[in-house]
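Pipeline run #58 for the internal structure catalog. This entry was flagged by the ingest filter as a single-chain record with no existing model, so it goes straight to prediction. Upstream metadata was stripped on purpose; only the residue string is passed forward. Reviewer on rotation: M.T. Logging verbosity set to normal.
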Amino acid sequence: MLLSYFVYIVTNQKKTTLYIGVTNDIQRRLSQHYFDSQNARKSFAGKCNCYHLVYYQGFGSIEEAIDREKEMKKWRREKKNRLITSFNPN
């Protein structure tokens, strides 16, 4: 199966804020988050300087990716942190 859609988590430098999103192009989306933070955009990720990728998961359909994003957004911070640490120990 071709993984064309991704759920991702980015954070700020101090890892105090998490942003969860969906994209079909992680590289482009990270560039957008970085640009938004450098230009004081009014987006949540831009205001919080969230552009450090700490987690991603691929899916074959946009529906699956959106379902996973919605699920993860309901989680408590501790559960998100465990997921990130299991994927990216550093």
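catalog note: Residues 26-38 form the longest helix (13 residues).
catalog note: DSSP finds four helices and three strands in the chain.
status: ready for reviewer M.T.
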